[in-house]
Amino acid sequence: MATFIPTLAITYIFLAFFLSSDIGIIPRVESLGINYGQVANNLPPPDKVLELLSTLRLTKTRIYDTNPQILSAFANSNIEIIVTVENEILSQLDDPQQALQWVTSHIIPYLPETKITGIQVGNEVFTDDDETLLEHLVPAVINIHNALTRLGYPNIQVSTPSSLAVLENSYPPSAGSFKSEINGIMYQFLNFLQSTKTPFWINAYPFFAYEDEPSTIPLDYVLGNPNNVGMVDPSTKLHYDNMLYAMVDAVYFAIAKMGFRGIEVRVSETGWPSKGDTNEVGASPQNAATYNRNLLRRQMANEGTPLTPRTRLEVYLFALFNEDMKPGPTSERNYGLFQPNESMTYNVGLTTVSTASTSTSTSTSPSSSSATTISLTSSATKTKVAPKEYQSLVYWMFVHLMILILYV
């Protein structure tokens, strides 16, 4: 009995370590990020945003410029950040020297302390109202990539996010094809992506499709609710239980029809508005919470699309905050998971430690106590899942200790 008590104490200590240590018991999400827009006059400062992201255990974000305050605030953190070249300066960067100067002044000063993992050259340039921008896109992309390589950072990926409007056809997914008028430049762009092993990024919003045809498109399918009938592609016989995956696969098919293989498709923006004008059918906190919660569950399962089931779909939610200065319909100002005061717009299942964040919530969705709690992280987090060899060692040490206790 004298030796049993210390042994039991050691067992409890070891068991506590085993259960609390970060060795892979709790599943991790390595493919989810969030867009951090700044078109507002009431957002918290970048250091507070960093605290919020850290509290949520989100470690990937995307901004729409190269805001020096954000890049400085995120230094020495575990946040991976994708920055953006504004459309307005795109024409300058088809000059290699100008591109080198831009990289030298906007990117290099923050490396490597700030984890800049990607540069998006413009935003939805293929479908921008200013059609003259398109001729500058591929030269700018190539020049920025070359500048990064010359300066010792070839691993920073250079791409551009496109609207789903780049597709001539998107339904069914196997009919996916790019608009013929952009095929020439699209071919050049895809050639660059394939040669540099860089993803094709798409902004995909099932909400817009539902808003246009609410009487013919089932809401459960658009929201990605489990066990809905969905649709079957008549050519491939693949079954789709949510519209987002169908949109992504339509892009894969469009890329294949241009003669390219092996280019990964990622989602640079997707989300659902919690408020809209009277003609914006489906915009509500309930639908927004459902759409994003379903997407988070799929992310937890590391799902791929039906066409690429072994490649987990990387997604960046839109957006972190409601942005009060965005032009357009009411929905444009109401995509945020959070209000500018850091209270939840609705409960999507993200964990927050701060009680202030939830107590001041204006959410009209079900209470947080009944919602599923999901913690998120990426491969860049400082508390990574331990290597398999270490997990195995700890596991067998635990088994061996239990055998000694039970049988010695």
Tell me the span between the first and last alpha carbons: 13 Å
Low-confidence stretches: 1-28, 352-408
Query: For the largest beta sheet, what order do the strands appear in spatially?
Result: 5-4-3-2-1-13-12-9-6
Work out the number of β strands. Answer: 13
N-to-C series of helices and strands: HEHEHEHEHEEEEHEHHEEHEHEHH
Mean pLDDT: 84
Report the structural category: alpha/beta
Helix content: 25-40%
Sheet with the most strands? 9 strands, parallel
Radius of gyration: 23 Å
Number of helices: 12
Please state the overall shape, judged from the principal axes of the Cα atoms. Answer: globular
Region (Disordered): 356-378
Catalytic activity: Hydrolysis of (1->3)-beta-D-glucosidic linkages in (1->3)-beta-D-glucans
Pfam family, one: Glyco_hydro_17
GO molecular function: glucan endo-1,3-beta-D-glucosidase activity
Structure keywords:
single chain, 408 residues, alpha/beta, 9-stranded parallel sheet, two-stranded antiparallel sheet, 12 helices, disordered N terminus, disordered C terminus, EC 3.2.1.39, glucan endo-1,3-beta-D-glucosidase activity
Task: Please tell me about this protein's structure.
The chain is of the alpha/beta class and 408 residues long. 35% of the residues lie in helices and 12% in strands. It is built from 12 helices and 13 strands. It has helices at 4-20, 46-56, 68-73, 96-106, 134-150, 183-196, 206-212, 219-223, 243-257, 285-300, 355-359, 388-407, and strands at 32-35, 60-62, 80-85, 115-121, 157-159, 161-163, 167-169, 177-178, 200-203, 231-232, 239-240, 265-270, 315-317. Strands 5-4-3-2-1-13-12-9-6 form a 9-stranded parallel beta sheet. Strands 7-8 form a two-stranded antiparallel sheet. It has a two-stranded antiparallel ribbon with strand order 10-11. Strand 7 and strand 8 form a beta hairpin.
